[in-house]
Amino acid sequence: MFIEDDELRNLYKTASEEHLQKLEAGFLLLERQPEDLSPLKELLREAHSLKGDSRMLGVTEIESLIHQIEHILGQIQQQQETMTPDLSDRLYRGLDAIGNLVQEAVTGNPSGVKTFQVLAMLMGAKEEVTEEEVTEEDVTEEDVIEEEVDVIEEEVDVIEEETIGEEEIEKILPSSFSPNSAPETPYRIDTIRVNTHHLDDLVTQTGELSVTRIRIASIADEIEELRSLWEEWQRHTSLSSQRDFPLGGGSLIAPVMNHPPANQNKANLTEKIENLIDRLSSSTREHSSRLDSISTHLEDRVRTLRLLPLSNLFNLFPRLVRDLARSQEKNIELTITGGETNADKRILEDMKDPLIHLLRNAIDHGIETPEEREKAGKPPTSTLRLTGSQTASQIIITISDDGRGLDSDRIKRTAIAKGIYQEEELAKWTRSQLYNVIFLPGFSTRTDVTAVSGRGVGLDVVRTNVEQLKGSIEVDSTPGQGTTFSLRLGITLATASVLLVKVCNIIHAIPLEAVKTTFFVAPQDIFTLEGRETIALEGQATSIAHLATLLELEGETTSLENSLGTPCILLEIGDNRLGLLVNELLDTQEVVLKPQSQLLKRVRNVSGATILGNGEVCTILNPGDLLRSVQQGRTSPTVSNSAIATIKKKLTILLAEDSITIRTQEKRILEEAGYEVTTAVDGLDGLNKLRNGHFDAVISDIQMPNLDGLQLAARIRQNPEYNELPIILVTSLASDEDKKRGVEAGANAYIPKGSFDRDILLDTLKRLV
Question: What is the mean pLDDT of the chain?
């Protein structure tokens, strides 16, 4: 059923999503502490309010389901039922179904929910039943519990649904995340809650802005008066000049001094002009200062409106952790602190998926089973901590577990086996540097495949998402004791505090949160250690690099004219340090960040751009990338004549797809991106073409004649020659079981056609090839 009335539809969406969120949180609390029945009164109120709203708007399917949940809560309250894990599963599945039905009611898109089967499940049916059977049972059940429900309704009818008060404008977050079926659309916060005292303040400042605007308009009138006086003064000056010079070649007419009225008029005009200029100058300074104060205040207030507590994001995860722990038969207690920390709305939106991935990895990779923990002398229940905090310039989110920790030897062996690094290189690395290897695309030490964390693809995406938010990610681990991921993010994403530096006569900006200090380096202080230029700083060997070299800029890399030495910026990211040598240190400045072009989604060593006060475009550098460029011996690509003249061999893709329409579309996308494509009409054709040629990756459908995509992937993996050949499956089969079968067959990535678009395919291919 679709709610036709726009206003009622929006109100119902907002209210029902809040009711469902509170119900889920209450169920989690009841499951953890089943002996504490105090949350039940609040839960009954939420369920009753949702049922009443649904009945009023004619959303009968939701009314039926929430009625049954209300009945179960009443049984728990009367101690006829206990909140067991199995009962919790039923209630959570009921909430998921209701959430989908809410979306159907407000969007008109079919949810696919079979209400009669969900109702049967809530009633405790072990097997699927028909709609007729459920309807008959439902009527009988209602007859039995009618009196009970009436009593409950009498208790909660007096508690009206929370309404919009005069002290705030209520706008609620989207519905909570269902861990069993992640939403296809990205997590977005369309509306936020705004206290009316903030709005009152904004209205007041807008009024002040209007007053200032009127005053500036009056200045414009005075400027017009000044122009008139200036024209009159010029006329008097012209007349004076005519009196001072001969007319028609005759003798001089009496000089100006002999004309007191004209002289007096000119003096009066001069005095008026001087007074008006003084008044305008004073008024302009006053209004400019006032305008600056108002605009700064407005900017701060508007930016504050985008700040939301991290709890809005953190509250999505208890259910996720609970369900994953239960599916893996692990005892995990999730503790959340720092939810009151405020962060920019975009941080909450863009950090949801990375945090989910880190939580899944912790549950799957890091935390042991109860039996393993007891053997290791640990309590059977592990602790997973999610923490938010704030410094002067950063939001810090940490995820820590008390599991098995990272195996550095295994990381080394995997990196060497995959040909990512040589053993000699890794021997020189610190533990922190070694742990950063896990963020490389496709890196995984796991040899088995699980439905929770797959084949290890994803941590590189986590790091990319964090860096897009002007942040960095660090990992610390102690074998046998656990692992901690720390995500450091900028407080505001609209502006940034930066240090402006000049390199090869070009100004660049470096985010201040990564700058530890600045100093000068004398040539004699530089020595070589392990092939890198190094200085001794605070008793610690610190690598240095010329920023111009990292950015591959032509010209003088540094300026040694200063008697103190070369300007150097010390970057500090986690436990890593790097000194950057530049030509000149300019100034610190607050800059407005400009969104990057879609053509430049990810440029190494660059995180964005800004426009300086003089109108010059300035690139904002990525400190994390600069550090990795030095560690890995990489520099940024530049466009030079030699580079343009170099003809690179195109990467070749084998595309297996039996549908000619889809095959043509995908081939066109790949060729437009610069790949050379060989097509195959089915898996068998693809296997034959693979044997007769060289390919850098395989993209395949699953449902094909002769040899399907899963069989093709498995046959490819049987040949050791193709162990590292990336395989991407693009298919209409989108269930978790289908994805599991895909990775078990040997696929590196799995793209459902329902969410397929050009960028997803190309980004996945770029990450793997």
Answer: 78
